[in-house]
């Protein structure tokens, strides 16, 4: 896998700087139902674009947020989560993050801490939520309170990709928060600073050849 | 004519999927052996399962047998061709809630996912269901809130 940010040739991440483009990422362990949630939300629109070289799946969606039409790219891991860590380009320019765990498997809840830590290393400010999936398996879990999200001040959703409970609500609210985040000018400078920081870090790690690739990646979009 | 699938299983030689079904007209339970052709240890079990489900000779009988179950039976056949025991195959499907699935390889993970899919399909509301609602909202917030044991024995953040 190439070492630097934005170096996915099929994907020009510069487009996410434009007002009408939003990038929302999904995080969480294997088999918590991330793709199933996407599928339930998008229904007929569900046409994943596999970038298997990067263990990445993209879903494109057009939404109306407020009175604005926004193109939303949802980024989903395609097995990359098995490395317990995502490539920096996954976080790059993301405007919101959906963190998912499986209410039937405690380990997926415990692992949220690791995912959240990594997210905040790259994107300290973006809106994020915690999603408890598969509540259809046992509705009793909804009587319990899961403190992880609360402690971090994150919205929490009980959802089921199978019967659809709260799936659409969660996605709509996250799209709205992603757009709000983008429009908030005080945060914008943070974002720029953060990008610069990331870029410096990458430079230190990569060789000069890799840096050239990063520049090339800003060329016209192929997606 | 309508058939109700009762149970299914495999037969190793020749490799076949076996189905016990009830003929709804006669009320008789019958056994149907469906040979799995052109299937080797290198074959894609998911495609093979789909092929069988759509086979014009078998599809009426297999209508209410979930794809995931047919996939599982094909995996068992394939494992056998590779010399793996039935116990091994069955263990590979078993879900252990404490197992870290991030550590499995593609094939092992697919087996667990197949297992999870059974519950998913069972609880699934489909778009063509008469009572389908796209935006289902339920508020769980206020009611109870018993403390979750998963938050105990805590490290930071929980």
TrEMBL record, chain A:
User: Which residue ranges are recorded for the region named Disordered?
Assistant: 201-223
A biological process term (GO) from this entry: microtubule-based movement
Q: Which Gene3D superfamilies match?
A: P-loop containing nucleotide triphosphate hydrolases
Molecular function, one GO term: GTPase activity
Q: Which GO terms describe its cellular component?
A: cilium
Q: Which domain of life is it from?
A: Eukaryota
Name one matching Pfam family: Ras
UniProt keyword annotations, A-Z:
GTP-binding, Nucleotide-binding
Question: Which PANTHER family does the entry mention?
Answer: PTHR47978
Q: What family classification does the UniProt entry report for this protein? A: Belongs to the small GTPase superfamily. Rab family.
Taxonomic lineage of this organism?
Eukaryota, Metazoa, Chordata, Craniata, Vertebrata
Protein name per its UniProtKB record: Rab-like protein 2A
Automatic annotation (TrEMBL), chain B:
Give the main location.
cytoplasm
Q: Per UniProt, which keywords does this protein have? A: Cell projection, Cilium, Cilium biogenesis/degradation, Cytoplasm, Cytoskeleton
Q: Name one GO biological process term.
A: microtubule anchoring at centrosome
Looking at the UniProt record for this protein, which Gene Ontology cellular component terms does it annotate, in alphabetical order? centriole; centrosome; ciliary basal body; spindle pole
Compartment(s): Cytoplasm, Cytoskeleton, Cilium basal body; Cytoplasm, Cytoskeleton, Microtubule organizing center, Centrosome, Centriole; Cytoplasm, Cytoskeleton, Spindle pole
Give the family this protein belongs to, as stated in its UniProt record: Belongs to the CEP19 family.
Listed name of the protein: Centrosomal protein of 19 kDa
Organism of this sequence:
Zoarces viviparus (Viviparous eelpout)
């Amino acid at each position: 896998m190439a070492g630097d940010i934005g170096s996915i040739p099929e994907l020009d991440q510069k487009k996410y700087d434009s007002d009408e483009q939003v990038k929302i990422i999904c995080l969480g362990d294997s088999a918590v139902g991330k793709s199933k949630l996407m599928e339930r939300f998008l229904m007929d629109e569900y046409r994943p674009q596999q970038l298997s070289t990067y263990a990445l799946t993209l879903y494109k969606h057009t939404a109306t947020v407020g009175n604005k039409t926004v193109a939303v790219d949802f980024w989903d891991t395609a097995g990359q989560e098995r490395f317990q860590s995502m490539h920096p380009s996954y976080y790059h320019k993301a405007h919101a993050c959906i963190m998912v765990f499986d209410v039937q498997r405690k380990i997926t809840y415990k692992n949220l801490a690791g995912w959240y830590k990594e997210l905040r290393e790259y994107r300290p400010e973006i809106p994020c939520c915690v999603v408890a999936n598969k509540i259809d398996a046992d509705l009793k879990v909804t009587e319990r309170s899961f403190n992880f999200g609360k402690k971090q001040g994150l919205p929490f959703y009980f959802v089921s990709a199978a019967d659809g409970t709260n799936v659409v609500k969660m996605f709509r609210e996250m799209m709205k928060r992603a757009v709000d985040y983008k429009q908030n000018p005080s945060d914008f400078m943070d974002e720029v600073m953060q990008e610069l920081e990331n870029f410096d870090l990458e430079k230190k790690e990569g060789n000069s050849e890799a840096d050239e690739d990063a520049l090339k990646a800003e060329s016209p979009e192929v997606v | 004519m309508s058939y109700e699938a009762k149970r299914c299983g495999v037969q190793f030689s020749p490799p076949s999927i076996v189905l016990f079904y009830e003929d709804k007209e006669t009320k008789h339970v019958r056994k149907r052996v469906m040979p799995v052709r052109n299937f080797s240890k290198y074959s894609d079990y998911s495609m093979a399962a789909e092929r069988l489900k759509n086979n014009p000779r078998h599809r009426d009988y297999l209508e209410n047998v979930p794809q995931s179950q047919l996939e599982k039976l094909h995996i068992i056949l394939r494992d056998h061709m590779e010399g793996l025991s039935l116990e091994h195959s069955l263990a590979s499907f078993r879900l252990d809630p404490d197992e870290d699935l991030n550590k499995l390889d593609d094939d092992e993970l697919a087996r667990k996912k197949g297992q999870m899919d059974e519950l998913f399909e069972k609880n699934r509301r489909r778009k063509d269901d008469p009572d389908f609602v796209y935006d289902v909202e339920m508020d769980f917030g206020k009611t109870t809130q018993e403390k979750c044991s998963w938050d105990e024995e805590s490290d930071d953040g929980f």
